[in-house]
């Protein structure tokens, strides 16, 4: 740790790490993100007459656009996991670790960036759902994003708990097998996050119908368990990352 790093506050380190990670992500995603936004803009600008023409004479074109939106949304929704896991194989990773920013600041910056991306994709998906209504008929509905249970819970589940669970498993398997097992880690992390969510919803407990806790208690337990689990997984992942790559150094 350099003297310059010791003078920086954690907030300043996170700010610098967030700027660096944002620049890296921009160069990876600006083409697909720009394409996605361009398609939404084109749909928004289409006059009603053009939509009617496409419904009657170019059904295949609407289906193609619809499928493209679905694929792009799915890829966008898994970005929090991608943002957390892929930097460890990046050629810039050794340089980043030798820099002035702490590992905790860089990991927290990637986590914040992943949550922001997830929020942006949810909003973009809801916008796409509204725009695709222009091609709807009485018997056909196209792209539709239904956010359940609610926006903030989805951010906690998909932006914090699931990506951190996948990262923790990814780093464990990387240290044990010396392999970058992205797909397996993703699905195992998804399974673990589902177990955590079930515990947060008290699904392992059975209450008498007349003794069900008030909603505010159930909600409080949910947020406590989910955020507590996210904090624990963050700490475990951070410790694994430090142990794994400090040994290599």
UniProtKB/TrEMBL annotation:
The keyword Transmembrane applies. The chain crosses the membrane at residues 25-46, 58-86, 107-131, 151-170, 182-200, 220-238. Keywords: Membrane, Transmembrane, Transmembrane helix. This is Uncharacterized protein. It comes from Schaedlerella arabinosiphila.
